[in-house]
Amino acid sequence: MLIIPAIDLIDGCCVRLTHGDFAQETRYGDPLDQISAFADAGADWVHVVDLDGARSGARRQTALISLLAEKTNARIQCGGGVRTREDLIALFDSGVARAVIGSTAVKNAAEVNRWIEEFGADRICCAFDVRLDGEGNFQIATDGWMKEGGVLLSDALDSYPAGGLRHALVT
């Protein structure tokens, strides 16, 4: 098992949302200080989420993410607003080692499977935000936790052939 510390970003700041609720945001320190602290503590990887991008569907903090990748020895896996091949290329060009694909991994698995083939399974992580429903099923939330239900985690995972998807993140 690999434990990866995480940094969530809104407006260039480290934040944490309570249960994915944008109305319940707690702000923390500077992202560069935080990623440095994680790397100094021995983290080989840091998970970075552009919550502005996740909410709006467009990458918003590319310059900051590029700076974080440049200034740390830890490898970065990053997501939030990754919807297109061009988004992937922009992240990889900014120094991100692995792109995290959330909503699109649920809504367009065929396209994500093509990206896995093109860029390699080690460069793609599919992220599934889930909530347990009243019947004990894991229902996926998309669009930065803004849309819930309709797809079960097991069904989403079945959209990826054995051996294709190497990295999955379930929160």
Q: Helix/strand-derived class?
A: alpha/beta
Poorly predicted segments: none
Q: How far apart are the first and last residues' alpha carbons, in Å?
A: 15 Å
> Mean of residue pLDDT?
91
**Major β-sheet annotation:** 10 strands, mixed
Strand content: 25-35%
Can you tell me the CATH architecture? Alpha-Beta Barrel
SSE string: EEEHEHHEHEHHEEEHE
Task: Enter the CATH topology name.
Answer: TIM Barrel
Give the radius of gyration: 15 Å
Instruction: Assign a percent range to the helix content.
Output: 25-40%
* CATH class call: Alpha Beta
The number of helical elements comes to 7
Count of distinct strands: 10
**Overall 3D form:** globular
What is the number of independent domains? 1
Description:
- The chain has 171 residues and is of the alpha/beta class.
- The protein has a single domain, classed as Aldolase class I (TIM Barrel, Alpha-Beta Barrel).
- Strands 1, 2, 3, 4, 5, 6, 7, 8, 9 and 10 form a 10-stranded mixed β-sheet that branches.
- It is built from 7 helices and 10 strands.
- The mean pLDDT is 91.
- It is 33% helix and 33% strand.
Give the key terms:
about 170 residues; TIM Barrel
Topology, pairings included?
Elements: E1 6-10, E2 13-18, E3 21-27, H1 31-40, E4 45-50, H2 51-56, H3 62-71, E5 75-79, H4 85-93, E6 98-101, H5 103-107, H6 109-119, E7 124-132, E8 138-142, E9 147-152, H7 153-157, E10 167-170
Parallel strand pairs: 1-4, 4-5, 5-6, 6-7, 7-10
Antiparallel strand pairs: 1-2, 2-3, 7-8, 8-9
